[in-house]
Amino acid sequence: MTIRAVVWDVDDTLFDYTTADREGMRAHLVAEGLFQGYGSAEAALVRWREITDHQWARFSAGEVDFVTQRRDRTRVFLGRQLTDDEADAWFQRYIRHYEAAWSLFPDVLPVLEALSGSHRHAVLSNSSITVQEHKLRTLGLLDRFEAVLCAAELGVSKPEAGAFLAACEALNLPPRDVAYVGDHPEIDGRGAAEAGLLSVWIDRGPARSRSADGAVVHRISTLAELPALVRADTRFGAPSTFG
To answer: Which residue, 217, 211, 227, 223, is CA-closest to 197?
Structure first.
């Protein structure tokens, strides 16, 4: 079997979302004068992350749409009722601080260059095309991908097999010819493996190290390891490197 394309997650895989979210929200809370109610910046940031994870799970489950989860994150965090316009305005003020902190991981451009002549590339994200195309364009990556697919428009999100298969269909390739690279061991790792793709988990830190109960997911700690893996295609006859 030959891997002919790599499909990429974006947040915390190519783009350092965790740092941008933390630093952007810190600056936003200062500007909004909201630290007082939490006692410390770190307590406020932990609460924002908890709310974000909960509302994102509702979106992923199809309970709310993409815009509603953003508005609900704001309402829950502030602890008060807001009109849609008020919630949107508050979130947009946060976005300005968040975007000011955007950056790629340092191993991203070298690996894209290394694979540019040998593999096709696409994006599959549990976000929206508007958000991710803007992000990729701002970071100078958009032109490197043949397709950008996102859950908000697909109507199905990772780890559902349909999301991964939609990316393969966009490339007109069978799953066995496609690798998927993402930072989450379950949503990305297990989901891609069960959909029949070569699944690669980029594990950037011990806090993310979790088991996927034996799923064949290849675990790497830097994207510099990816070219050898996709060129060799070790999914068959080799032990999982997960866990």
So the answer is: 217
Contact 230, 115 (CB under 8 A): yes
Instruction: Please indicate, yes or no, whether the overall pTM of this predicted structure exceeds 0.90.
Output: no
- Number of residues in the chain: 243
* Helix (DSSP H) and strand (DSSP E) numbers for the chain: 10, 6
pLDDT tens per residue, range 99-131: 999 999 999 999 999 999 999 999 999 999 999
Measured N-to-C along each axis, helices 17-32 and 84-100 cross at an angle, to the nearest 10 degrees, of: 120
The phi and psi torsions of 124 (rounded to 5 degrees) equal: -130, 120
CA 135-195-154 angle, to 5 degrees, is 45
Helices of type H across 101-160: 108-115, 129-138, 151-154
pLDDT digits 0-9 by tens, 7-27: 999 999 999 998 998 899 889
Q: Where are the alpha helices (DSSP H) in the chain?
A: 17-32, 41-60, 66-78, 84-100, 108-115, 129-138, 151-154, 161-171, 191-194, 226-232
- Tell me whether the omega of the peptide bond preceding residue 110 falls within 30 degrees of 0, making it cis: no
Q: In this structure, which long-range contacts are made by residues 199-206, counting pairs with CB atoms below 8 Å and at least 24 apart in sequence?
A: 200/226, 200/229, 200/230, 201/242, 202/13, 204/12, 204/105
How open is the CA angle 214-216-222, to the nearest 5 degrees? 110
Q: Residue 224: what residue type?
A: A
